[in-house]
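Hi V.,

You were right to ask for the full record rather than a summary. Here it is.
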Amino acid sequence: MMIRYAFRAACMVLLLAAGVATSHAQRKAPTAEQMLSVNGAQGREFWIAIPPNEINPFPVTSLEVYIASAYDTEAFVMDAAGGVERRYKITANQIRTLSDLTGETNWTWEIRQYEQVVQKGIRIKADKPISVYVLNGKVTTSDGYLAIPTAAWGKQHVVTTYYDFREAKPWACGFVIVSKQSGTIVDVRLKGTGAGSARTSGGKRIGDQFQVSLEEGDIYCVVGDGTTRGEFDLTGTEIRSNVPVGVISFHQRTTMPNLLINGNGRDHMVEMTPPVETWGKKYVTVEYNRQGSNPNARGDVFRVIASEPDTRWTLKYYDKQSKAVLGSGGGYLANAGDFADLSQSQGPTFLTHGYSVWEADKPIFVMQYACSASFDGDQLHDPFMINVIPEEQFIPNTIFQTPTDTKFTTHKLNLIVHADVNDPDYVENLKSLVIDDVPVWNHPRSVAPTLLF
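Predicted structure:
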């Protein structure tokens, strides 16, 4: 199913499907094309990569790439390692699935070479704007990410992952740098936590700085050594480049939170990380709709990451029905790349829930993580992470799709709406939001609270 939503210009919307140290004065504002490309995820050129899911050998189920467009067009897909370009017809408002089952994707794309330059980028181009999603599915661990088109790439990134997870196996966090052009020079400064506890798989320490030279289609992947649990984390690692690059943050497999004792529910997690210049100062989130049976557990895990030194942030979260304040928080992040973890837990507990508002005096990034099934007893949910988009970059329309893989049959959509309550047309503006031409405010499949309340 592919869905389009649209809004009157007076309202903006955020879709939730699935540190570089620069002064504020020097920060380059994101272009309009970057904002639409990052948040609407539409573009004409993409370079993607397949980070490692689990540890080899492990049985696979589906490696799929979903391409969709509002136009009839053609997509051209090239594996940098093989150099052969294939052409695929894209029909407007329909999903074109490229799958390993039909030989259109290949498990050799999955990255298993660490701290070395390899040609494992995959280029996807089209004459008309398209959106691209990537799904990496193994027997008991799957996740996917929304690809960011190259027009929205940047020269400054901060890694947004999660702690290494030594449990049944040495599962590690990591990141991938993707190059779209020759002569790319990348400077990496490893940052995070657990400097005295572990290293990367190649022996690098947090605090190390190094440079990587990349050609078109090259990738460079770094993972932890997987020897610790809840200690070593590469979140905050700074990546600077002479030309725009793509960055993918991931975890091979973990519970959530990953100090959860006897946790049932371990999954791959992956997202393509937006460049620092697209970060913002205000974020709004809503808890994932879960059907857990444990009354002593609720909410999601969050990360707040600083882009600049001396960043102060605040949080308030509210009941979705009564709008009463349920809790508040905040803190101080001394350095670019520092992060606040909300939060680690060894057992079921109350985390940030309802809907929440995050604000900071300097641009931050907010990552939202879904908890393991055993956290609250919801057997349909396992860990995944989703980039939260700042309110400053909400958009009036987009097109998106859900996986066509038949193993995934339940799909949930959260819409977060920013509207001017002082506008005399406030209610009419809200009523203008439609999904595939069906008004959202009285949509037959909507879950309370409804849009107008």
